[in-house]
Amino acid sequence: MQMPPPVLELRNVSRIFAPSGFRAVDGIDLQVAPGEIVSILGPSGCGKTTTLRMIAGLDNPTGGDVRIANESVLQKPPHLRKVGLVFQSLAIFPHMSVRQNVAFGLRMQRASTAVIEDKVDRILELVQLPPAQFASRQPEQLSGGQLQRVALARTLVTEPALVLFDEPMASLDRRLRDYMAVELRAIQKKLGLAAVYVTHDQETASAMSDRIAIMDSGRIVQVGRPEDVYERPDSRFVAEFLGDANFLKPQAVGGRNGKRRSLQLSGVPIEADDAGQQSNGEPFIMFRPEHVAIRAKQDKGAGLTGVLTGCQFSGGYYRWRVQLTDGQFVVGRTTADPARGEANGGKVWLSINPEHVRLLRQ
Amino acid sequence: MTSIADNMIAADLPAIRASPKVQGASQWKVAALLFPASLLIGLLLVCSLAVLRISFGERHAEWSEWSLGSYQALLDGYYLRILADTIWLALLSAVATTMLSFPIALFMTRTASQAARRLVLICILLPMLVSVLVQSFGWMAILGPSGFLSQALGFLTNSERPVSLLFNRTGILLGLIQTAAPLAVLPIVASLRTIPIQLEEAAAVLGASRWRVYRHIILPLAWPGIASGAILVFGFNTGAFVVPLLLGGMKVTTIAVVIRDQMGAILNWPMGATLSLMLILLALGVQAMHRIIAPGRTARRVG
């Protein structure tokens, strides 16, 4: 099957800031296919916003190539790149009404008044700001969520080949953010947009994207579907960044069977997938809290024993902590109240789903 | 002057806007704090009323007699022409100063170099610390028949007679522009500083060329500062005295110079007072205009 050419292609893109020699972006490669949202996820200062600015033309790479629709855009100023950018600050023009804000891009394209009217009305309907009610409002009369929609409409109305999002929902409260994420995803699917979404919030990234690129210190350290990256991180950094995880030291690492390695944890044999990190560091295993089952009595497969040392209900599930017999702690998450093992002085049995255990190295 | 002052300090004192409601005993404190300012304003008001009274007085009997003589003289043509001349010079200087100040203000807000910004700020502020008299003598040296500007112009136009820029409108205009420049630069800087760079970037990504970013984003948002600057320069220059006196010789006069003559040499106080009143009315009129041409819309409104 012939793959369509990517909408966006970053080839070994770097950005080194002049006096200090700081490598904000250090040779990254990334492709975005038509209709695909790729999130760039990373802590602040990892270079994700710089990457986005280089795609938009607001900053210039010191090395590599930025290609949009199979064509290098390095020589093009921002206003000729035909990308859309939704800013973190939203950057709504304060001296223009909602209609004027949304019409701005079309005016710059010198579209006719009738076309502008029509497109603005339709896009405002799409982002659920009925034009009859909202078009003539001034930005200061809008709530945060409504400003968000104006920013989105203003970007989408010009039908850009590629839309860039720079954490536009960071300032919204959590419920509104979740709601907007779902809505944005629906609009993106409906219009078949290709998009790059930059964020440090892994939940939004997972909810929004077809693929996630994890960035750390100017490099992309892992790319993949959200569930793949979450379940099979290639490094401790990725594992930690995407959510809660247990990191435990095995006593012994045994032979290899394909990617599977057998090892011993707290005196019990278990198996893990080797992430294949090129490192001589000390090996450790990683698994997510939701992949541990807890029992009050010995069960088939529940070989690890320990003592329940803490449990709290945190809205929808219980988070608990068990100290294994070798002294290490395991954190778990279950929807049911965990067995507290009161009958045997707090002793519980754990079973870790072997499918979800990873072997990593420091 | 509230909105002009607002624009001048807005960038530095954003936190002052929201002050808690004053109540009870602290009202006395507020009154005490306002006392020195009220004294000053009160004095100004009394003086203005005295000017008003004298303008209706008889020459040499300003406080005892009543007369409309000086108002009749005003309508006579001679004074009106000078008044129109003064307004025209102030208007030209306001437009020119504002246009020249905008790029300077833009540089001051945009340059990444702290040192460059400081240097420009010092160059802008320094004239304010030097007497206008000294500045005017400087201009006389430059513009006079043996000044280097006249020499250079004479050389370029290959003319035998030195081109004098002194004692004519051009000379006065140059002096007015230079001495008033800080009044335009500072409010424009203050208003430019309130425009987040993201607004420009957003406009650029939406397809606006550099020029159209200025046209549609920066100019409208900086407009309150630009208008404040222009109005300050206009107001300052309608009352300009030293610059037209020295650079205009006696060939070109302005209202302030004529007032000095009436009050001093001629000792016609009612005439001087009437002309002073015209200046005061002009200043008030310009203030009223400010509300119309610079509605208080700034980039600060949307957070």
Explained architecture:
The complex is a heterodimer of chains A (362) and B (303). In chain A, 24% of the residues lie in helices and 34% in strands. Chain A contains nine helices and 21 strands. Chain A has helices spanning 48-56, 98-108, 113-126, 131-134, 144-156, 174-191, 202-208, 226-231, 236-241, and strands at residues 8-16, 23-32, 37-41, 63-68, 71-72, 83-86, 162-166, 194-199, 211-216, 219-224, 246-248, 252-257, 260-265, 268-274, 283-287, 292-295, 304-313, 318-324, 329-334, 347-352, 358-361. In chain A, the strands form four sheets. In chain A, strands 6-7-8-3-9-10 form a six-stranded mixed sheet, sandwiched between helices. In chain A, strands 11-15-21-14-13-12 form a six-stranded mixed sheet, with no helix packed on it. In chain A, strands 16-20-17-18-19 form a five-stranded antiparallel sheet, with no helix packed on it. In chain A, β13 (260-265) and β14 form a beta hairpin. The radius of gyration of chain A is 25 Å and the shape is elongated. The relative contact order of chain A is 0.12. The model of chain A has no long low-confidence stretch (mean pLDDT 89). Chain B has helices at 2-9, 26-55, 69-74, 78-110, 114-129, 132-143, 148-157, 169-193, 197-205, 210-238, 242-247, 255-263, 269-293. The chains are: A alpha+beta (362), B mainly alpha (303). Chains A and B meet through β6, α2 and α5 of A and α9 and α10 of B.
